[in-house]
Amino acid sequence: MVRGYRDRADDSLLTLLGDMPDLVSNLVKAEIDAGKAWVQKTSKDAGISGVWFLIALFFLFWAIPVILVFAIAGFASWMPVWASALIVFGILILAVLVFGLLGVLRFRKVLKRENPAQAVSTDIRLVREAGDERPREVADDEF
């Protein structure tokens, strides 16, 4: 026996039909549990992604005054003040890019997950394929 599964090859049709309600009930409960777990993971990752985007927006917000200081200092004096303002602006833009990239990567992780509706459609497709594999009767004209 592997993980609580048993070989049903020798079970009678009536035994298998009698087990159907339990099997369907277990499948529905498992799909509901999978849906709950998916919602929890997705909401957590979406929240973390939102925080990364807020951090990126925070740095972008402070980059605007820096570029203004850069322009003013660039006109006032040609080397030390505007060069330092340009360096600070570059660091802030780099921070915006890094935190924005972290947010995008987290959202991609969320989008790659299989949601419960996809899991149900996969189950239905598998059941249909299993039903199509049953032996068909051979017609007389096929000989």
Helical proportion? over 70%
Rg for CA atoms: 30 Å
- Percent of sequence in beta strands: under 5%
Q: Which secondary-structure class do the elements indicate?
A: mainly alpha
- Give the helix tally: 3
Average pLDDT over all residues: 79
Low-confidence stretches: none
- The beta-strand count equals 0
Query: What's the helix-strand series?
Result: HHH
Major sheet? none
What is the global morphology?
rod-shaped
Task: Give the structure's gist in a few sentences.
The chain is mainly α. The chain has helices at residues 13-76, 80-112, 116-132.
Kindly describe this structure.
With 143 residues, this protein is mostly helical. It has 3 helices and no strands. The radius of gyration is 30 Å and the shape is rod-shaped. The two termini are 43 Å apart.
